[in-house]
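Hello forum,

I keep getting stuck at the same step: I have a sequence, I want structure tokens, and every attempt I make locally crashes halfway through. Rather than fight my setup again tonight, could one of you with a working pipeline run this one for me? It's a single chain of 694 residues.
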Amino acid sequence: MEILSLPIGVVIGLFPVLVDLGPQEAPAELRLDGRTVCSVTKHSPSCVVDFGVRPRLHQLEAIRRDAKGLIVERTVRWVNRPGIRAELHASCSCRESEHACSIQLTWGHPAKLDPVQVFVSLDGHRTKVSATPKVVLPFPNRNAPEVLFAEAQFSDGARASLTRLLRGSYPADAEVSLQPICVDVDELSSGEKGVLQVAGGGGPVQAVDLGEEAVTFVVEPHSLDSVRDLEKFTLRPEKRIASPLETVDRIRITVGNEVLAASDLRGPIQDRARWLRSLIFTARDTKYRYLRLADAVAATGYALAARPQRRVLVLVLSELGDRLGDDSVFAPADVVSYLREIRVPLVVWRSGTALGAGWPAGSHLVDARDFASLAKTVRARLELQRIAWVDGRIDPWTSSPARPEGGAKVLSSHGPAHITGLAPAGHGRPRRIFAASLEGLWCSAASSTWLPVPLTQARAPVASVTATGAGVVIGSATGVTTLLPDHNQTTPMPDVLAVEHLSETDVVSLSRDGVRQSADCGETWSDAATLPDGALGISIAADPDLLGIVYVGTQGSGVYRSLDGGRTWVELGRVLRRTVVRALAIEHSCYDAVYVAGDNGVLVGDDFGDWHPMNTGLPRTIVYSLLIDSNDPNRPMYAGTAEGVFVTTDRSRWSYLGGHGWPPVTSLLVCPGSGKLVAGTFGEGLTEIPLPTR
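Reply #2:
Ran it on my machine without issues. Output:
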């Protein structure tokens, strides 16, 4: 059993998680931070999980129980924990006649790397061997050895080790990945029998080394312009104000603009002033439309912690951020807390009169002498650190996983609770809607009385629903099902995330292997058309006025447009490449605009890829759904967020409509003829909100 699908990087909000149950057909529980969120089966192997709106470490588990309720199988995946794992396995055969042991080694690495160094110990006698599958070593003593220890080191710093008891009544294995913890020297102490340990838990330390050094600067545009004499000193090598950091192995510079522009300088640096000049010019010359400073700090902190290295993250603030504000998904306080969890030290420098609300106090940067002094403090912070290697089965990041706050309460036990999509029932069925949910497909008359819709897999999770005059089309983990007046038609597809209708009979589906088209309301489908560069689409929308124009939002790869119903695709600008696009809305008839919603709020753009934030009046939160009411002459647009429902009529400022304290609002629908907005939540079912007076 294995947890397969999980995004890489800092994950927040709702995400589908896929579980491979293995050869057994017994169902399993999927748990987040010790709380069961759903059950996965062979026919419904995926589940939508809410990781919350703040960056934090989470433990995701898949467990199986026996008839008595005891756990018999368990697999774990950590979310938002940087780093990768390697594995090492060995078999050993010792022959007394040859006074030698033949050792067969195999290894695995997520990036398919081979070890650069392999060490094998027999009864404590350590030998460096070549990275080959078979090794022959002589007995270290007169008798056959009892304990085998092997360790592999990879070029990216990952390590894996194995300990095997070769003789005795109960031969045993301990094949584990060693994982690194970046600690201060004073966090290492001697435990029982003098075994070195990390303060606060983490188990015995297997090895300690210095590792490489890495410093990442996250700078606001023009944050160094006001620092007196700084550029002048880069032209005078004898002053060498940058010398404390000259020997750093890796320096990275990231600008907190809309694309998080970054550059790497790898050392040791030959031109001693090169990194400082690069820092000055990058901060001065990088273009920006808006700022995403907190997002940049979170992303670079994750990258710093992904390698076994001593590290410091330096944040350089200026007055620009005070004037423009920060359009980040995350709040500074949440990012500071996350960096503390993943053990990335944060140093804050303030140039000019920068306030930088929400960030730690830090130090003021006025002139070149200040820069030299602050560079020394960064050097001192690096020299305090060590890389401690501990057992990969132990969690060294947090002694007890944080639990999500509170719990969702289902308003009605007779209807769906975890809504994933809404659709009107179509012609001839006024005031009726369909709701896709983790509890299956449901149908209602004005959301008052809910009835489950019978499907092949009763109450199986449904990811999306759309309705046409011909029928209702739903997408699920196993494929697409069309409900027609005289029969149902199911087409197997891998993990369908969204379906959308283009006309009365034309439908498109978005699954993990691409986009498919149907011209007969889902009875037959075209082959999958993949998005460029392997992008993973998670949301889809069709132009309501122009047939065949389709937009797809992706998980961190931007937005793509198709003019031929999904056969070919063009990316709409690079600005959104670091944005999770959870919903789209198209409005060419009035504003000639494309709206995207996600972890960065709402952005408005056009077909040329020119994007701008549209978040005035919105709290800093995740936006899950967008809806434009084309039947209202004012064409209001509604946004469903993790903080309730908001509305705008002028496309410049949002107003709060209702829903504070609800779970995430994942879908919205204006119920025909009711004068009410139906909001679907992920945890408390559906609620009606009176529409503003027209």
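Residues 168-176, 397-413 have pLDDT under 50 and may be disordered. If your local run keeps crashing, start a new thread with the error log.
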